[in-house]
Amino acid sequence: MTQSQRDRIHQAMIEVVSERGYPETRVVDVISVAGVSRKTFYELFSSKEDCFLAAYDVLLGNLLGDTAHGFESRPGAPWAERVAAGMGELLRHLAEHPDEARFAIVEVLAAGPKALARRDAALRQFTGFLDAGRAETSVELPGITSLSIAGGINELLYSEILHGAASRLPSRLPDLMFWITLPFLGAEGATAERERVRVSMLTATGLQPPSGTA
Q: What is the mean pLDDT of residues 187-213?
């Protein structure tokens, strides 16, 4: 029963924050959507911030889990293909759950220093998928390469979600893969990866790529 109430409050927090914004969200709004009493809320969470952080942790765990599932679904495949599969899962989740996307990418910036620390930790976890590319390059890349790429991806997600365009995030995958793979594979390899992903996406939707495209 307690876990069910906790889950309902988490979901209500996500819904209310994504609609009203974190600063304007009140505990009374959250408990109204969750269908629980104020007493129950404060038995489970010490404050609005505590509830936000708990919901953020669960959501980020799901997002990283989806990315890892995609990445690990291609054992033995080249790194770029594994990253594309992981990124595809992440973008699809955000597109299908715009409330969660806004909560995790946009509103976290308004939720205080503890939330910002959580965001920073999440970005650093994400770099693990990118750093795996070092095994497939002879270039001696700076240590900040993967964190820089992850931060750039986050900025693109932020811009699209802020403007209500989460639904088009999956269509960004080919260009994102060019950007992700460029430092590791060089311009020629990154161009080939962008085209591979583009053709794969067209094929998956039942469309035929233009003739002469491989």
A: 81
Amino acid at 48: K
Residues sharing a CB contact under 8 Å with residue 123, sequence separation 6 or more, in sequence order: 147, 150, 151, 154
End-to-end CA distance of the chain: 54
Between helices 173-204 and 145-162, what is the axis angle to 10°?
70
Place of tokens 């650093």: 124
Q: Indicate whether 211 pLDDT > 80.
A: no
- C-alpha span between 86 and 64 (Å, rounded): 9
State the average pLDDT over residues 105-134: 94
Which of 140, 144, 103 shows the shortest CA–CA distance to 123?
Answer: 144
> pLDDT of 40-60, one tens digit each?
999 999 999 999 999 999 999
Residue 119 CB coordination number (10 Å): 18
